[in-house]
């Protein structure tokens, strides 16, 4: 049975929200192990991540590990003037934070902390579900599809990597023409690559 995109969002979000706290904790530790083996980690310096919400794979341990490796971490901020677009701001332990219109914590807007997308090395994207073709299903706002569109057209700039729990994989996603497939998705158990 093929589910609609909205049915899949509900189904998979419920699945990941039902994961026990010890499973979530172990998944966040396993994510660091997988991430540390990525060839990109040898050369990348500026890494865009996100703060987890709604049962997403906990990225805070990964962020702290990246800091310990001397890497710079950037978080997405909803663009104040260009609706549907993201800015990426340098994130450190003392960065002032605020809640955006979706109730997600993001750095308080400070233009001096903005890193242009083309200067990032990696962009780690959240996702609700993914399939074995690299397609990702997001929350439906298209923020990351817009952010990744230039990369998708030229394969230049920041490499996108999806992060997800293993339970977020589905056989096949219904796709739309604007969906940007990912070349790599990291789960606690493995690295998917296309």
Automatic annotation (TrEMBL):
It catalyses: (6S)-5-formyl-5,6,7,8-tetrahydrofolate + ATP = (6R)-5,10-methenyltetrahydrofolate + ADP + phosphate. Signal peptide: none annotated. This is 5-formyltetrahydrofolate cyclo-ligase. Coiled coil: none annotated. GO terms for biological process: folic acid-containing compound biosynthetic process; tetrahydrofolate interconversion. Belongs to the 5-formyltetrahydrofolate cyclo-ligase family. Gene3D superfamilies: NagB/RpiA/CoA transferase-like. Keywords: ATP-binding, Ligase, Magnesium, Metal-binding, Nucleotide-binding. Transmembrane segments: none annotated. One of its GO terms (molecular function) is ATP binding.
């Amino acid at each position: 049975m093929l589910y609609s995109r909205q049915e899949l969002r509900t189904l998979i979000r419920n699945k990941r929200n039902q994961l026990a706290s010890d499973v979530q904790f172990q998944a966040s530790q396993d994510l660091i192990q997988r991430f540390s083996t990525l060839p990109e980690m040898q050369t990348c310096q500026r890494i865009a991540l996100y703060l987890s919400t709604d049962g997403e794979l906990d990225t805070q341990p990964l962020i702290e590990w990246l800091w310990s490796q001397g890497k710079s971490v950037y978080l997405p901020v909803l663009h104040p003037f260009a609706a549907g677009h993201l800015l990426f701001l340098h994130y450190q332990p003392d960065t002032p934070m605020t809640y955006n219109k979706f109730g997600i914590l993001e750095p308080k807007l400070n233009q001096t902390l903005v890193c242009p997308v083309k200067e990032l090395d990696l962009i780690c994207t959240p996702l609700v579900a993914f399939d074995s073709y690299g397609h990702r299903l997001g929350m439906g706002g298209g923020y990351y599809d817009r952010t990744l569109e230039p990369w998708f057209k030229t394969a230049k700039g920041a490499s996108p990597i999806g992060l997800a729990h293993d339970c977020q994989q589905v056989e096949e996603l219904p796709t739309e023409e604007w969906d940007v497939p990912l070349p790599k998705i990291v789960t606690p158990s493995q690295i998917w690559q296309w």
